[in-house]
Design brief:
Blueprint: H1 3-10, E1 14-18, E2 24-27, H2 30-35, H3 39-43, H4 53-67, E3 72-79, E4 85-97, E5 100-110, H5 112-142, E6 144-149, E7 156-158, H6 160-166, H7 177-182, H8 186-202, E8 206-213, E9 219-230, E10 236-245, H9 247-289, H10 295-326, E11 334-337, H11 338-355, E12 359-364, E13 371-374, H12 376-392, E14 398-408, E15 412-421, H13 428-433, H14 443-449, H15 455-465, E16 470-474, E17 480-489, H16 515-518
Parallel strand pairs: 12-14
Antiparallel strand pairs: 1-2, 1-5, 3-4, 4-5, 6-7, 6-10, 8-9, 9-10, 11-13, 14-15, 15-17, 16-17
Helix pairs in contact: 9-10, 10-15, 11-12, 12-15
Length: 519
């Protein structure tokens, strides 16, 4: 076997010899390995029949050029015996002997795998481009830009959204960490650097708000997030994050605050304008009762006084509610006596309870400290509201106002207060509705008992400001228990109750027809 014959037989590429008409004369074994066709099968018909119809004209032109003595290279595809498409990179040259062209020699390299890889890469590139375009569009809609920084190489990259956020074309400046910081308002740069250091040291996510100064001097408010990644040695290798323009949110927030302030000021003014004559009516009614009047006239005056007091209460509720909504309601922190608060509530509601024939009890556990630090006025307001509701919705039976110690430390004490009645009770649905603004248990309740539906809403907010929470236990026809917890401060040395734990015990006989008193 000659050297040429050995190369011909063992070449992994398809090597063919054609006559001047393109008819296959000889092919190496690789043609069967690659295409599945034997050389004999290929020799029985013209090679052009195996080529894709769309590429036949191109290949015929190439063969014509070879016949003029010009070597040619081209790519083409055929289907193998299984029907799969194969791609080849082919070189064809003329075979000349004694100055005469006697045939055509071709070498075809199978590039199918390469073509498939190129197609996959092209798809991935197209998908990446589409994702990048979608990300850019999403960032534009969200007014957001992303960035990435390598603390080891100091290399940094910005998304198109960052350039847009800074108000400059994306080709105008190269991304740098110092350039990034320079866009942040000077007063906010220290906070940004502090957050960046925390993220680097602890590899944690940090959020921040800052102002940026765009090209041209426009001021924008931004919300940002910083995230860091570290290697196995704990060295930061990647820092990335985003900035989002929240200027419009800030503007809407400021408009809302201004509107809330305006509403609160208006309600305060109107409440003053209404309360002043209402107080005057109540005061003159009291003076009028001191004069000589018939019983019928006295009854009219008392009704006028009652209506004026109701009006004053409604105005006070609306004013408190507006203050809570505007965030202007603040609690005092002063020493007070819990027993004094109970006495004040009892003085106000005892007459109403007596007029309806209801028994009224105030019970405070001996373990509850009497001297507390907090807001006695607001605590009294909550207890008064609950007690008034209990009397309003109870036809017969009793009202029990109780305080219990939950926990106590050297500085703080948590106390549970409850108001229990034997009234009409509530359904499960009503128990959730009564804490919504301007809502009562039912429309018939409003017609029968009156009120704005703000009392419990205000009470819940006040209890929340006292670091406490509300609970309601009730069943229709079986009464209700409204309970809340509240936290108060303790003065040094006042963490004990008024009764000594070491006082001598006495046997005491108490006679009372009430089972609550007997307990």
């Amino acid at each position: 076997m000659t050297k040429f014959q050995f190369i011909f037989e063992h070449n992994p590429d398809i090597v063919c010899l054609h006559d001047l008409n393109g008819q296959l004369l000889k092919a190496n074994p690789a043609v069967a390995t690659v295409t599945g066709y034997t050389p004999n099968e290929l020799m029985n018909k013209p090679l052009i029949d195996f080529i894709d119809v769309r590429e036949r004209f191109k290949i015929l032109r190439k063969f014509k050029k070879v016949l003029r003595g010009q070597a040619q290279m081209f790519k083409f595809s055929i289907r193998d015996k299984k029907g799969d498409v194969l791609f080849f990179n082919t070189s064809i040259v003329p075979v000349i002997a004694n100055g005469v062209m006697i045939g055509i020699y071709s070498v075809s390299k199978n590039i199918t795998a390469q073509i498939k890889i190129e197609k996959e890469l092209r798809k991935e590139l197209e998908a990446a481009y589409q994702n990048e375009a979608a990300l850019a569009e999403a960032q534009q809609i969200a007014q957001l830009g992303s960035w990435e920084w390598n603390p080891q190489t100091n290399a940094m990259s910005w998304s198109i959204g960052m350039y847009r956020l800074f108000g400059m074309p994306d080709s105008e400046v190269s991304p740098e960490i110092n350039r990034f910081v320079s866009f942040i308002h000077p007063a906010d740069q220290a906070e940004f650097r502090r957050r960046l250091v925390v993220s680097l040291q602890k590899a944690k996510e940090c959020s921040f708000q800052c102002r940026i100064i765009r090209e041209g001097g426009a001021l924008r408010y931004c919300y940002g997030v910083i995230r860091s990644e570290v290697n196995q040695e704990g060295v930061p290798t990647r820092v990335y994050g985003f900035l989002q323009d929240i200027t419009e949110c800030k503007q809407r927030e400021e408009e809302w605050r201004a509107e809330a302030r305006s509403k609160s000021d208006f309600l305060a003014y109107m409440s003053h304008e209404i309360r002043t004559p209402a107080n005057a009516i109540a005061g003159f009614g009291h003076l009028l009762l001191e004069t000589e009047l018939s019983e019928k006239q006295k009854e009219y005056v008392r009704k006028v006084q009652s209506a004026s007091q109701t009006l004053i209460g409604i105005v006070s509720d609306i004013l408190d509610f507006s203050k809570i909504e505007a965030g202007k309601l603040e609690l005092e922190s002063i020493p007070f006596q819990l027993d004094g608060v109970f006495n004040d509530v009892a003085d106000v509601i005892s007459l109403q309870a007596a007029q309806k024939g209801l028994d009224l009890f105030f019970i405070s556990d001996w373990t509850v400290p009497d001297t507390l630090i907090g807001d006695p006025l607001r605590l009294r307001q909550v207890l008064m509201n609950l007690a008034n509701n209990a009397i309003k919705f109870t036809k017969f039976g009793e009202i029990v106002v109780r305080s219990e110690l939950l926990s106590m430390s050297s500085q703080y004490v948590n106390i549970k207060f409850s108001v229990k009645d034997t009234g009409i009770g509530l359904t499960d649905e009503q128990k959730t509705e009564i804490f919504q603004a301007f809502t009562q248990a039912s429309s018939s309740t409003t017609r029968k008992y009156g009120g704005t539906g703000l009392g419990l809403v205000i009470c819940k907010q006040l209890v929340g400001m006292m670091n406490g929470s509300f609970t309601v236990e009730s069943a229709v026809g079986e009464g209700s228990v409204f309970a809340f917890t509240a936290q108060f401060g303790l003065r040094h040395g006042d963490s004990t109750n008024i009764f000594s734990q070491h006082m001598e015990k006495f046997n005491i006989l108490v006679y009372d027809q009430s089972t609550t008193s007997q307990k």
